[in-house]
Amino acid sequence: MISSTGKLHEFISPSITTKQLFDLYQKTVGVDLWNSHYEKMQEQLRKLKDVNRNLRREIRQRMGESLNDLNYEKLEELMENVDNSLKLIRERKYKVIGNQIETFKKKVRNVEEIRRNLLLEFDARQEDPYGGLVEQEGDYNSMLGFPNGGSILALRLQPNNHHHHHLHSGGGSDITTFGLA
């Protein structure tokens, strides 16, 4: 409810809407709240449309369009702006390329390290293709060395024992272990 002094008092009624309440307040006070708010919104809309129009024109000009309206000074300014933009774009481009090169170099270094390790492993297998089995002449036909175990396993096989499936003592083959000091 609005008092005789123009102040709005709390009023609850299911039959009156908030808009109607504000309209009643505006009528009593003599102020048009909606119109002033509408005018402010219209002014803001005009400003945003101007900004949008100017940005679109600048984009067209940077694309080489709509240049007829520009005088010499504006054309010089546009060229300077485009040159500065190109400079920034080139700097970013070179940074991206530099990052890609560094990433590629890291990958190449990793591949080279993997290759070196594989070559070392291959060379080690070429030196000892039987995993430590060394054939030698003399009392024993072959010897198997275990570098971590600290011993050498030596086998002596008799030529007449081709049909035996297991090793036994006193027959055709001997197994001897030598401790390494």
Q: What would your notes on this structure say?
A:
The chain is α+β, with helices and mostly antiparallel strands. The chain is built from three helices and four strands. It has helices at 18-29, 33-62, 72-127; strands at residues 133-135, 142-146, 151-157, 173-179. The protein has a four-stranded antiparallel β-sheet with strand order 1-2-3-4, with no helix packed on it. β1 (133-135) and β2 form a beta hairpin. The radius of gyration is 48 Å and the shape is elongated.
User: Portion of residues in helices?
Assistant: 40-55%
Contiguous helical run count: 3
- Count of extended strands: 4
Structural class comes to: alpha+beta
Please summarize the sheet with the most strands. Answer: 4 strands, antiparallel
Organism: Anisodus acutangulus
GO molecular function: DNA binding; DNA-binding transcription factor activity; protein dimerization activity
InterPro entries: TF_Kbox, TF_MADSbox_sf
Protein name: K-box domain-containing protein
What's the quick description here?
This protein is of the alpha+beta class.
Secondary-structure blueprint:
Elements: H1 18-29, H2 33-62, H3 72-127, E1 133-135, E2 142-146, E3 151-157, E4 173-179
Antiparallel strand pairs: 1-2, 2-3, 3-4
Short key terms for the protein model shown above:
single chain; 181 residues; alpha+beta; four-stranded antiparallel beta sheet; 3 helices; 4 strands; 54% helix; elongated; protein dimerization activity
